Amino acid sequence: MHDPHSPQPSPLQAAHERHEPLAALGRYDLAFPPSIRFGWGRLAELAEVIAALGRRAVFVVGRTSFQESGAEAVVAEILPQAGIEWEVVARSAFEPTVADTAAAASELAARDLNGAVVVAVGGGATIDLAKAAAALAANVDAANPPQHRDAWEDFVVDHLEGVGRGLPIRCPPPPLVAVPTTAGTGAEATRNAVISCPRRGFKKSLRSPLMVPRAVLVDPQLTLSSPARVAAASGLDAITQLVESFVCRRATPVTRAIAQSALADALRALPVVVAAAATPEAGRAVSEAERAAREAMSHAALLSGIALANAGLGMAHGVAAALGIACGASHGEACAVMLPASIRVNLKQAAGDYAALERLMGGNAPQDDLAAATRFLDRIERLCDAVGGPRRLSAVGVEPSMITWLAENSGGNSMRGNPVEMTAESLTPVLEAML
């Protein structure tokens, strides 16, 4: 008699038992930061990380997170002790715009970057701003640099995908150290920076293998200052990235393994983190359960960045970019509202993949793939409700008049990875049903 609680055989074992031939793995590439330090309290090692790459540091930081996370106090103590000069050259307020990027890039380009290390301390927006500014500053023509703000903005646009001249990043930027203070975007592990332009109406990527950070320092303790809403949105973003990179058309055995390894713990950890963030107390002790949950979410964010950078994403991220332009929705909340809808759209096409994710959670998962995939969708919907994620497009500012524009402007590299091919015509009724 079959024991429903016995371990499920791996696909390889099952194929062997059925005497099925092995499928060819094909070819794939894998890129990620060459140095990653992960763990509670490891910000104390930042001076050592910087010293291995250069002699001084220029910081790009979040508007408030640098101070509120406690990172500024640590940096101000340990870097002078190590003989490392440092200064803050740019601060991010929200997701980086063309104007923000132009200002930060011109600030970096005006400095002698020989021996300098760029250090990004903040959320995904801060890290993206630092990656973009460093890459662009290193690729300015020293004999003919941009002379004014508009010229700098044109210089930024000309390097973005799909809107400018498509200029590549040819010269390596100064080494960049990424220190996330949120657990969400995985920007610390990716090769691109997402840049928006409200005036021109786009949200595009600056992308280059040269933009992968040289070192990453993930200290989950830095996430303690994130408000509950930020913790929920960033956590749902990381979960969306793990799910979409797993079912993506361009997924590889390695990226699927990476996503699988982090997802189950993240699904259990996020409600714990959000509940703790909702009841902040100055100087409170962090329980073992909260610390473990924050570590799980920071780990999930890091691995989601590695997975998406090497595989791709899907419909949720394809629409999220357009939502950010149309109504100013934060990236995390846009992904949160779109994740259940994207699973529903792909449910039959990717039933086996979603079923595999549901079976990661243990318990008596259905043997039928579609039934197990449906249970996974239910699990994600319950999670969104539990952490206060938006469930309707109206909750992030979408009005009926925006639907046609959203459908026509949702696409790009993320949408091309979606298991089901989506067009503006097929996406429109999906979005209308979500109002």
Give a written overview of the molecule.
- The chain is of the alpha/beta class and 435 residues long.
- It has 2 domains: 35-223, Rossmann fold (3-Layer(aba) Sandwich); 226-278 and 288-432, Dehydroquinate synthase-like, alpha domain (Up-down Bundle).
- The protein has helices at residues 11-17, 46-51, 65-68, 71-81, 98-109, 124-137, 149-157, 228-247, 253-277, 288-310, 315-327, 331-346, 351-359, 369-386, 403-409, 412-416, 424-432, and strands spanning 35-38, 56-62, 85-92, 116-122, 176-180, 192-197, 202-207, 215-218.
- A hairpin with a 4-residue loop joins strand 6 (192-197) and strand 7.
- Helix 5 (98-109) crosses helix 6, helix 5 (98-109) packs across helix 7 (149-157) and helix 12 runs antiparallel to helix 14 (369-386).
- The radius of gyration is 22 Å and the shape is globular.
- The N and C termini lie far apart (48 Å).
- The mean pLDDT is 92.
Total number of helices: 17
Percentage of residues assigned to helices: 40-55%
Which class of the largest domain in CATH terms?
A: Mainly Alpha
Secondary-structure element order, N to C: HEHEHHEHEHHEEEEHHHHHHHHHH
Alpha-carbon distance between the two ends = 48 Å
Uncertain segments are none
Features:
alpha/beta; six-stranded parallel β-sheet; 48% helix; Rossmann fold
